[in-house]
Amino acid sequence: MAFAGANPWGRSLMRRFVLSLLMALLAVVPGHAQDMSGFSKAQRAEIIRFAANNSLFVLYHEMAHLLVDQLRLPVLGREEDAADNMATWTLLNKRTPEADKALADAAQGWVLTGVAYGSGKFEEDLAAAHSLDQQRAYQIVCLMVGSDESAFRPIANQYAIGRDRQDSCYWDYQLVDRSLRGVLEEHMGDGTKVSVTYHDAGGRLKFAADAFRSSGVFDEVAEDLRKSYNLRRAVKFNARRCGEANAYYDPDTIEIIFCYELMKDFMELYAAELPAPVEPAPRPSGAGKVKSGIQ
Q: What is the DSSP string of 50-118?
């Protein structure tokens, strides 16, 4: 996800047949994928919340790539894993119910994408820059329970993480926390210039684009960058149509790009987990009309 054109899910464009499962998934809501019509108001809110929270995690992941690049931070291991850890650490340190829910949604999101896109079923996945989708989910949960055992043991149990591993997650979190504080402390402060631009999107992307903008997550991450770090160069945040479900940091333009297709992808993946929208039964011919002389 660090460079322009990089695919955040590690999906090869050659994998046409992998998408067959996703298409079957989305077929549950074929007439409702664009605007979520047919779902209840509460379900639409749930779908948008899930998609926005997953987008929030992705944006903090991209912000991590930005910080690694602009601050020349040391990375021991894979940068993609480090970016996930930094995104998780950032949200955990907000210490709010909303941030905790965003992490829980992000973990579930990686599970859903892992199933939909067959993560781990292909040899190229094993050589990819990213960990397998399900591994990314479990790493988020591990850091959660490692940071606060009492608060997050229920979700660790839900993911069937054994008690011994839950206990050792404490040391995983301590290592991430110590490492990030050590390298970021001197760069923390208020001073980064960030511009945020939402480009127009119509047609099939309009509902997702509007939902993304209304969620406020793009502005939230941009403001966090402004207030938390002091970078010498200005940063651009651009939300736009890309032609693929993606988000990435471009080091050449110092720009974080979020593609509306990704918001749409998250919405459709979660919508497929909900009960299928109920269509009204067709009215019998002439129903609703009162015939003359008949009461």
A: HHHHHHHHHHHHHHHHHHHHHHT---SS-HHHHHHHHHHHHHHTT--HHHHHHHHHHHHHHHHHHHHTT
3-state secondary structure of 281: coil
Strands 255-259 and 247-250: antiparallel
Would you kindly state where each structural domain of the chain is located, as residue ranges? Answer: 19-25+39-271
- Rounded to two decimals, the pTM is 0.84
Q: Tokens representing 119?
A: 């993560």
Which residue in 62, 46, 51, 49 sits closest to 8, CA to CA?
62
Worst-scoring range by mean pLDDT, 31-35, 49-53, 82-86, 167-171? 31-35
Q: How big is the CA angle at 36 (ends 59 and 261), to the nearest 5 degrees?
A: 35
Q: Of the candidates 147, 92, 145, 137, which has an alpha carbon nearest to the alpha carbon of residue 110?
A: 137
3-state helix, strand, coil in the chain (%, to 5): 55, 5, 35
- The structure tokens listed for 253 are 């333009």
Q: Are the C-beta atoms of residues 81 and 65 closer than 8 Å to each other?
A: no
d(CA 136, CA 253) in angstroms, rounded, equals: 28
pLDDT digits (tens, 9 = 90+) for 55-82: 999 999 999 999 999 999 999 889 999 9
Nearest to 9 by CA among 142, 118, 144: 118
